[in-house]
UniProtKB/TrEMBL annotation, chain B:
Domain of life: Bacteria
InterPro entries: MetI-like, MetI-like_sf
Membrane topology: Multi-pass membrane protein
Annotated compartments: Cell membrane
GO cellular component: plasma membrane
Primary localization class, coarse: membrane
Family annotation (CDD domains): TM_PBP2 (cd06261)
One GO term (biological process): transmembrane transport
Family under the similarity heading: Belongs to the binding-protein-dependent transport system permease family. CysTW subfamily.
The name this protein goes by in its record: ABC transporter permease subunit
Organism field: Agromyces kandeliae
Segments crossing the lipid bilayer: 12-35, 71-91, 103-126, 155-176, 197-219, 253-281
A Pfam family hit: BPD_transp_1
Domain ABC transmembrane type-1 residues, every copy: 67-274
Amino acid sequence: MTTATEARTVSDPDQRDAAAGSVELQQVTKRYGDAVAVDGLSLSIQPGEFISLLGPSGCGKTTTLRMIAGFEQPDEGDILISGRSVLGAPPYRRDVNTVFQAYALFPHMTVAENVAYGLQQRRTPKAEVRERVAEALDLVQMRRFADRKPTQLSGGQQQRVALARALVNRPSVLLLDEPLGALDRQLREEMQLELKLLQSRLGITFVFVTHDQGEALSMSDRIAIMRDGRIEQLADADTIYARPTSAYVAAFVGQQNFFRGTAAEGGSAVESEHGLVRGIRSARLAPLADGTPVQAAVRPEFVRIEADAAGGAPTTGANRVQGTLLGVSHLGETMQYLVRLGDDQSLIARRPTPEAPDLAVGAAVSCTWSDTSVQVFPSDDAAAAGGYVAPPTH
Amino acid sequence: MRSLRLPSFALAIPAWTWLVTFFVVPVGAVLYFSFGYKPGIFGTHATDVLSFDRYAEALSPTFFEVFMNTLWVGIAGTLLCLAIGLPVAYWMAVKAPAHRRGLLIALVMVPYWTNFLVRTIGWQIILAPEGWMSQLLQTVGITDGPLAILYTRTAVLIGVVYNYLPLMILPLFVAFDRVGPALREASKDLGANRVGTFIRVTFPLARPGIIVGLLLVYIPLMGDYITATVLGGAQGNMVGQLVASQFQAAQNWALGSAMAVLLILVIMVSAAAIGFLLWLVSLPFRVRNRVVLEATA
């Protein structure tokens, strides 16, 4: 079917097919006055990829998205969509559509009219508009609400309409700006699953901006962790989780216990005041001289906890610390233990609920974890200060 | 202990009292007087015999011409206010830097804080045949002779547009501001350019504010008589002046009342007619963009 979408892309069909749906950011910089929102960012997004830009507010992720959409123009660098530079092109000349954070549905139009808007702008014949609007509403199961006004819909329903309104245009790239942020938790998890299914079915490139690590981990092919306008790490969820390249990434994705100390054994171990915490050298790090300030990180889910067996010697190759149990909280699938090790050092351990030991608050406990679960990072990271870093709340 | 609770309509009692005393009763009296007559040289009105005679008198050709003149100034003035105020309000709400808005609103309001009469008389100076404007235009060569605008309908039009423009700009500004940037961005994201976005998103959503602005300008403008008195002279008469002269100079309250009632009717009917016309004009656009899907199977 010949559509306006095709007409707007490059004339050479071979070149178009190969690059359609790709997004390429080359050394993109965006400043607001003296503040640098995006700082020489380069990112290459494959056609059909689901990529998340993950980071705290102010890290430049939304600015990046808005530059791809065309709402902002970069001060430096180039942006290519489907292989062509879109520098200077206004949003209405780009083959991308956006699902906005607050949905931005037109309140004076019905659901069907909202979805039809993009097609009408391209002078699509009326019959085709009706057909494609119905199709798009079916896709998000909102057909029976076609004649409602957006104000008569719940947040989740508005979200679906916003999705249909963008997808009906069959863009090469769909941009999503924290689209699930306003939904309650259960609905958000449902929508995560649906979004992922929809994306793999349609094969459209999704660029998803979020501050919610859970969202990014569960849906993305690759995640770009952003910090101060740059990409800190770009990798798939497994790699980000298991092999973070910096303490910042380690702290941002999932939860971490940090031990600060000095490097020992050539950077593969950390000498902290709670005994020798053994570790492996982080893959990215150059060997660290003994005595360099470093921090070791271990995730709560790798920490085993048990009542302190007096005199039990540490197993070889494993880490073992002793402390007092401060509290136990039930998180559903897991039990979480907060252990006090010293004046300003505590430790979180998490065990699957079925195998969680029954420990009394105030009891002496010992915690163990293997050295393979430890990451060592240079101690230059303010974000990782303190004994442990609580995950972003969600 | 049971606390004393007033019925909720108590909140409206002050307003009701005020309106009934100073609006409903006087308008009722004017309506009543309009069916009476002027009993003699020293009486202002008498109502022992009621008739429509004063209305017939008010619609005599001389008076009718002034009515038409008023309607012309009213409609042309309101449309000019819209044409001038709309771009300004849009720019203030959409394009101007956010931190400058307070200043811009103040600038719109400043003339409004000046005495109505004083700033209208100011226009006499500007528009006078020997005034600086006239001389400037002659020097530059735009006009041959002295400016012949003062004491014409054009002068009245210039005066009313100047006097009522803030009443148009402010509600339009609020209306455009309330639409917000998010919907405009969504529209552009979906392929509409600036004009398309204005026609299909900004304008329809700002329509209530535009209607408020039109009414705020049109209604007081139709009843205005200061501007017409100061700038209009004999050619630029408006009904307000006639009413005032019947009450004050001619001491004919009955005829003045009939004119006042007619003016109220003209304002209401013309406003309704214009509203209907606008609705009719927008109808094809609404129908064209309507999307109705077949019922789901």
